[in-house]
């Protein structure tokens, strides 16, 4: 009986649907215009955030994107359309890690690398450390030298100082947490880039993705040659780093939030350490 009742109801709904589809619903020109404008505004809200993201540079987003993003922000945020849609494919960028060197009052040294998928588990915890490393890297601004003060316009110099101060504040906060978490006397954080291998390195040299040569210690300040230009390309023309530094790594003048009591850099990267945080 229930089956018969369900079949009757389904047949009735199908007949009503067919009747409605055969009727022509007439809309006035005004309503058509209103609906069209609403659809266009919704489409503008969908593309506003990606447009602002993909036109973003060192000095912020494009002036053409800012008014659109600002005016559409209330609606886009209300309906949760404020996504950048920034995907890693088809040309993923290199990833970044934090190399942390800790030293206790007894002189014992230890090394941490974030993110480390073998230590940070479940996956969400690994992702949090991954975002922290990328966040600090994105904030990085080189320190200001006396030459920069002399050659940089005052307004740009003020922005430079502000951005450098923000980077140092976040970095020092991380160092403070490391010292508290691991009960150590001093700590240093170095930015490290895990670059992508080239086609030749993959197909001809069979270079694995976790090869030590793909990990490059990033200096806090660009290394300048006496001629005034960069010493060389740390990827295509490797230079010698400190004792035991990964091949292809520039000298990690780095991000010394703190140094050892001797005044020397604590970090001395060693071959094989890349296995700690394969990423």
- The overall average pLDDT, rounded, is 77
Main sheet attributes: strand count, strand direction, barrel closure? 4 strands, antiparallel
Low-confidence stretches: 230-278
Tell me the total number of β-strands.
4
Number of helices: 7
* Rounded radius of gyration (Å): 28 Å
Strand content: 5-15%
Q: How much helicity do the residues have?
A: 40-55%
Shape: extended
Structural class: alpha+beta
Question: What's the order of the H and E elements?
Answer: HHHEEHHHEHE
For the record, give the distance between the C-alpha atoms at the N and C termini, rounded to a whole number: 62 Å
Order of strands across the main sheet:
2-1-3-4
Tell me about this structure.
21% of the residues are buried. With 279 residues, this protein is of the alpha+beta class. Mean pLDDT is 77; it is low at 230-278. Strand 1 and strand 2 form a beta hairpin. It has helices at residues 2-22, 29-54, 66-78, 123-139, 146-151, 154-182, 199-203, and strands at 95-103, 109-114, 186-194, 215-217. Helix 2 packs across helix 3. The chain has 7 helices and 4 strands. A 4-stranded antiparallel β-sheet has the order 2-1-3-4. The chain is extended.
């Amino acid at each position: 009986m229930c089956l018969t009742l369900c079949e009757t109801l389904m047949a009735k709904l199908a007949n009503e649907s067919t009747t409605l589809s055969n009727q022509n619903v007439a809309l006035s020109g005004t309503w058509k215009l209103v609906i069209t404008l609403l659809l266009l505004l919704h489409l503008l809200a969908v593309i506003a955030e990606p447009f602002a993201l993909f036109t973003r540079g060192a000095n912020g987003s494009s002036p053409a994107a800012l008014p659109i993003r600002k005016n559409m922000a209330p609606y886009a945020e209300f309906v949760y359309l404020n996504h950048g849609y920034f995907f890693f494919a088809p040309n993923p960028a290199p990833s970044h890690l934090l190399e942390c060197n800790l030293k206790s009052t007894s002189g014992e040294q230890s090394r941490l690398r974030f993110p480390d998928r073998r230590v940070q588990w479940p996956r969400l915890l690994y992702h949090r450390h991954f975002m922290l490393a990328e966040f600090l890297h994105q904030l990085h601004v080189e320190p200001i030298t006396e030459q920069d003060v002399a050659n940089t316009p005052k307004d740009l110099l003020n922005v430079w100082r502000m951005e450098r101060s923000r980077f140092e504040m976040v970095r020092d906060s991380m160092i403070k947490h490391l010292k508290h978490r691991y009960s150590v006397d001093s700590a240093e954080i170095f930015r490290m880039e895990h670059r992508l291998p080239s086609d030749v390195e993959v197909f001809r040299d069979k270079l694995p993705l976790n090869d030590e040569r793909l990990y490059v210690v990033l200096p806090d300040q660009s290394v300048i040659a006496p001629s005034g230009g960069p010493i060389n390309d740390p990827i295509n023309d490797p230079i010698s780093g400190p004792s035991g530094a990964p091949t292809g790594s520039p000298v990690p003048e780095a991000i010394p939030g703190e140094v050892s009591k001797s005044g020397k850099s604590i970090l001395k990267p060693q071959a094989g350490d890349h296995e700690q945080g394969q990423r």
